Amino acid sequence: MSCGERDYLEIARHYEACLELHGDTHRGVDWPNAEDAAARYRVMLDVIRNPEQPCSLLDFGCGASHLYEYMCDKGFSHIAYSGLDISEKFITLSRKKYPGNTYYCQDFLRDGALPMFDYVIMNGVFTEKLSLSQDSMKSYVCSMLRAVYAKARGGIAVNFMSKHVDWERDDLFHLPFDELVSFVTKHISRHFVIRNDYGLYEYTMYIYRNALP
After folding, report:
1. What is the value of pTM for the model shown?
2. Beta strands at 79-85 and 55-60: parallel, antiparallel or unpaired
3. Is the pLDDT reported for residue 1 higher than 60?
4. Are 86 and 9 in contact (CB under 8 A)?
5. pLDDT tens by residue, 89-135
C-alpha cells in the first residue's frame, strides 16, 4: 500500500470535525441531507440476499450508528448489528447510544483482528479523498476492499461517487465503473452487482462470494 504515513487518517479527522460542528446528525457525518442518507441505508441493506433470515452485519465506518437507527425504524430486528470505526470519538458516541451493540475501534488495515460476518457494509467510507491524490486513494481502496471482503461470509456493499456527473469536486473520490470492476474481478470476486438506480450522483457495488443459487 502506497498511502504513506497513514494518510487516510486525514479522512477520519475530517469526520470528527464534522461531528464537533454539527453533532449527532446527518451533517455530523457529512451527508448533505437526511433523505439521501436514508436512501443510502436502504440500498446498502439490499445487499442481503435473504432479508427474512437472521444474519450478522458489520457496519464498517459506522460513525454515529445512523444505519442502526434506520434498521430499528424499519424493523430489521433479525439482523445482528456490529459497528467499526477508526475514530474513538464516534465509537464512544455509538456505545453510549447503543450499549447492547458490539463495537470495534481500530485501524483495520493495521489491526485486522475481527470475527467473520455474513455481510459487511461500507457506506461513505470512500466518498471523500480530501488532499489525498487519486492514486493514493485508489491504493487505499484496493487494500481495504481485499481485507474487508476476507471478513464477509456472504458479501459486502460499498459505494463511490460516480464519474457520470455534471461536475466533480476535487476533495471527493470519483471512481470509474470500469476501474472498480477490473480490480474486483481480478482480485476479489466475479459475482457482483452495480446499483446506479437510486437517484444520487454515486453508485453502490455488492460483491458476493457465490453466484445466486
Report:
1. 0.95
2. parallel
3. no
4. yes
5. 999 999 999 999 999 999 999 987 899 999 999 999 999 999 999 99
Cell of 69: 437507527
pLDDT at 5 over 80: no
Mean pLDDT value across residues 61-82? 97
Q: Which residues contact 68 (CB under 8 A, 6 or more apart)?
A: 59, 62, 81, 83, 98, 101
At 57 the three-state DSSP class reads strand
Amino acid 111: pLDDT: 87
**Helices marked H in the chain:** 9-22, 34-45, 66-74, 88-97, 134-149, 177-187
Q: Name, in order, each residue with C-beta under 8 angstroms of 150's C-beta and a sequence gap of 6 or more.
A: none
Residue type, 29: V
